[in-house]
Write a sequence for this structure.
């Protein structure tokens, strides 16, 4: 089984966690939250409910878990990319892929902390750390790495765009907005690396020509597409999201 | 509805009159002369709205869409004029501007249709002055020369796209629960794709580090980037999430784009709007 080389860090300070609770919405200030997860070396969060398959949940928590799943995938993918760059990588490609790795790891750990705060210690409600398997994907192959990055970034954009309407807490909506535009910046850069000097950065394949609108997809569509890649080994469901 | 009413008479003239800051802010882009003083008012810091325009639309989806339309008018005309100017080198720059221009035109049409569909009269298209009173010459109309004009075209495009991303983000909350939210998000991410490409065309990263406006950007564009250095997300300092470069200040600010208030977006746009 492959394991990421990046540890999922918990926030260092309990004060930060309490501060986070002020986000509101799902979070209710309390004591004793997340003591089970306070060990910095505890990479695996709580296991999913025994005998059952984890469901992302509904409402804002469902969206947070959904975003966490996608960010875990992106972070894990780029971790593998940067740990063994394909041969003859250009300086520009190395810089872009390294930045994307940083950003996605930051996003992943942000959602880890956000959900930890939101579920207030009830980690049965929190998506566990996922396991990944990239099958035949060849990380030494530039076209495969950049092609996969393009799919992941475009998918992230469409996922956040489609999930916005499912969010009821404006603070969460704002954070989703802060992240989705960075995913779109990534997608643009990756697309230009793949096809320089082209209009692909916002290509007609992803931005509808007559409206100028990017894609927006429901979780069920996104997760079906992600599932089709076979990348995510850990089973979970999204029965309470559209 | 007249744009001037909508913007609550934040006209170019009122912005530019009576300011005292006189730093040579456009030096890197040349052509200063006697009109340099007019450009010495940093974007967005000029003439902040006195009538609290943004407050009046704080919870108003229509106001959010009208602001969006105003920004799209600005971008659409800018790219049209850029493509007509002959300043853009063929190849990548022209290809990029053509694709962006196509989207901005579509956004204008889409927002007008959306507002009219909701029974609202869209704001009228303002009269724009992309020279900001003659300080810039992005279309080489006044003979600044192709090289300088092109540098200005790129710098303005970056400022407009990065502003657009922040402005849409700032209106998302006003569209919460509105049928327009998803469409606004779909435009927002297209602006971010544009921004990344323009920045990279200029030799920068596609994302914003700290509050850096980037090499070659006039000081006056700094208000477009102020606040981007924020690391507090949802009450949590994301630099404390872990150790290593992924949680450095650079990565932690790059990983999250920040919102711009309606006031700040209007103030930036207003510098390029002329009262008729």
């Amino acid at each position: 089984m492959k394991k990421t080389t990046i540890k999922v860090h918990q926030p260092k300070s309990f004060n930060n966690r309490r501060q986070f609770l002020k986000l509101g919405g799902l979070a209710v200030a309390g004591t004793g939250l997340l003591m089970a997860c306070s060990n910095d070396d505890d990479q695996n969060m709580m296991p999913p409910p025994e005998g059952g398959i984890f469901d992302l949940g509904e409402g804002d928590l469902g969206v947070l878990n959904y975003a966490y799943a996608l960010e875990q995938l992106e972070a894990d993918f780029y971790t593998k990319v940067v740990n063994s760059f394909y041969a003859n990588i250009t300086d520009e490609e190395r810089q872009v892929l390294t930045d994307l790795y940083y950003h996605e790891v930051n996003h992943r750990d942000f959602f880890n902390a956000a959900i930890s705060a939101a579920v207030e210690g009830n980690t049965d409600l929190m998506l566990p750390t996922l396991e990944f398997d990239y099958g035949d994907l060849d990380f030494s192959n530039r076209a495969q790495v950049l092609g996969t990055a393009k799919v992941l970034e475009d998918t992230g954009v469409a996922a956040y765009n489609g999930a916005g309407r499912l969010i009821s807490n404006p603070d969460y909506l704002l954070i989703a907005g802060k992240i989705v535009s960075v995913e779109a910046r990534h997608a643009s850069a990756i697309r230009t690396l793949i096809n320089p000097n082209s209009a692909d950065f916002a290509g007609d394949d992803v931005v509808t020509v007559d409206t100028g609108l990017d894609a927006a997809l429901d979780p069920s569509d996104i997760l079906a597409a992600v599932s089709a890649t076979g990348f995510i080994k850990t089973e979970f469901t999204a029965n309470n999201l559209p | 509805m007249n744009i001037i009413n909508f913007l609550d008479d934040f006209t170019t003239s009122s912005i530019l009159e009576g300011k005292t800051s006189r730093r040579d802010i456009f030096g890197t882009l040349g052509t200063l002369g006697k009109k340099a003083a007019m450009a010495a008012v940093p974007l967005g810091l000029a003439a902040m709205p006195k009538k609290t325009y943004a407050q009046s639309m704080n919870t108003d989806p229509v106001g959010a869409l009208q602001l969006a339309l105003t920004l799209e008018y600005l971008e659409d005309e800018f790219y049209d004029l850029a493509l007509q100017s002959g300043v853009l080198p063929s190849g990548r720059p022209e290809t990029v501007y053509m694709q962006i221009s196509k989207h901005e035109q579509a956004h204008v049409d889409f927002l007008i249709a959306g507002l009219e569909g909701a029974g609202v009269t869209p704001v009228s298209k303002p009269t724009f002055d992309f020279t900001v009173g003659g300080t810039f010459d992005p279309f080489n109309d006044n003979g600044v020369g192709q090289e300088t004009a092109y540098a200005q075209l790129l710098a303005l495009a970056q400022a407009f796209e990065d502003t657009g991303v922040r402005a849409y983000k700032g209106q998302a909350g006003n569209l919460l629960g509105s049928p327009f939210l998803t469409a606004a998000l779909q435009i927002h991410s297209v602006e971010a794709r544009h921004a990344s490409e323009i920045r990279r065309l200029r030799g920068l990263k596609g994302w914003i580090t700290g509050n850096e406006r980037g090499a070659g950007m006039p000081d006056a564009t700094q208000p477009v980037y102020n606040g981007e250095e924020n690391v507090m997300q949802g009450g949590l300092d994301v630099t404390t999430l872990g150790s290593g470069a992924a949680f450095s200040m650079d990565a932690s600010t790059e990983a999250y784009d920040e919102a711009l208030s309606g006031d700040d977006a209007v103030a930036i746009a207003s510098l390029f709007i002329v009262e008729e």
